[in-house]
Amino acid sequence: MQRHMALHDRMGSDGHAGPHVRNSRCNIPHNVSCNLELPVTGRRLTLSRILLYFLVFVCKPLSARAVLPHDFISNNEITTDGKPIDGISRWLADFTRSVVPRNCHSHNDYWRPYPLFSALAAGCMSVEADIWLSDNGLDLLVGHDRGSLSSERTLQKMYLDPLLTILEHQNRQGSFTPFEQARGIFNTRPDMALVLLIDVKTNPTDTWPLLVKQLDPLRKRQFLTRFEQMETSPGVVTKQGIWPGPITVVGTGLLDRATFFDHNHRSYADYETYHDTFIDAPLSTLAQDNNFWRLPDPLSAPLSQLASNSGQLWSADDAYYASASFKTTIGSVRTGFTEEQRNKVRAHVQVARQSGLRSRYWDIPDWPIGYRDYIWKILIEENVDMLNVDDLESAARWGWTQGYLRDVLWMSLVSTYLLSCTVFVLFLFRRLLKRQCRC
Question: Transmembrane ranges (predicted)?
């Protein structure tokens, strides 16, 4: 009887185990399970922390490492007026002897601490200046927007006058015959021309003729690359049209074809026989505009046939660069260039060279550093003629960060690992809550 009552106390009225039995059976095994599980989870988290530390601080991507400055630029200070410490003479004597020209374009060059000279020290063969017609219409100001304009920052003071001084020093022997070429900016390659890319920001109808006029001192000394049809004897005209010079002036921005080709004769007496400025052709539509090479014999084809086979012809007699926005024409390459994107770059380069022009992409991403360097590397591999750069020192080193795609894979793996750890911890925490609720 006592045994039956004890058993009844342990069982509920419905025949199930009573509260004493339920608590004793639940708490003891569950506590043991929790005590065993938490140390295991702690060890897993500790191992995860060690692995994460290894991935982040030991195997970090090369693109996250510091970029060393270029010694040549860093060790040669320049005064605030944009000239070398000892003037033009030291620039010519010390700097240009060791500078090797490179196919890099100094984008927005006027933003640099030392406009023109920083680009020359890096060996860039092309510099860019945005020009604005002054309010009185008598001068050309340099700046990115109207808020940055100043009467002291003119195209004449910042670029034209320094270039004239350097070239006069380089060519002290005197004048040249029309068939001779003056020495260029770089002593290491005196035959190389420096491109002065002029981005027109105001009405080109008034801005461009003033630019052509301000080039007159360089023109008189024969320092400009020019197109000229010259007679060797009465009635005999040379076949050569382009005569190289130390400076090649190229117009872009708001400059339109009608203004550039001087239909109103505001810039040149006769553009068709002489001009010493060139235009920036559109690289993205060049294949549609210049399709004259599809003719059986384009060199001997009559001009009328060439014109009918082309929407608007861009030739080396009038244009120099063929440029396009990288982001618009090629697109994002964060996971690497696709074969289609590389083929598009190759097609652009090919059509530019068939037209006698030099290919150039602007609007290239500049961050992260590894991403930018990866794009530079591919563009050079695909023989793009001019590299548009903002970071002169990195471009001058040509020792760019390697392995961007490996870094992309690394970041993807780390992201996947962190996500997996987060999901795993949430799973353990949820399971622990369920067990506690059941108890």
Answer: 408-429
Predicted TM-score (pTM) of the model is 0.75
Which pLDDT tens digit goes with each residue over 170-193? 998 777 788 889 999 998 999 999
**What letter does residue 231 receive in the DSSP assignment?**
E
What is each CA distance from 397 to 69, 98, 199, 380, 381, in whole angstroms?
Answer: 9, 14, 27, 14, 17
Pairing status of strand 236-237 against strand 124-133: unpaired
Cα–Cα distance for residue pair 196/110, rounded to 1 Å: 12
Domains in the chain: boundaries: 2-60+410-438, 71-278
CB-hemisphere CA count at 13 Å for 210? 20
b/e code 394-404 from CB counts within 10 Å (16+ = b):
bbbbeebbeeb
Peptide bond into 368 cis (omega under 30): yes
Q: How many Å apart are CA 278 and CA 216, to the nearest integer?
A: 15
Give the whole-angstrom CA distance, residue 366 versus residue 373. 8
Q: How far apart are CA 187 and CA 183, in angstroms?
A: 8
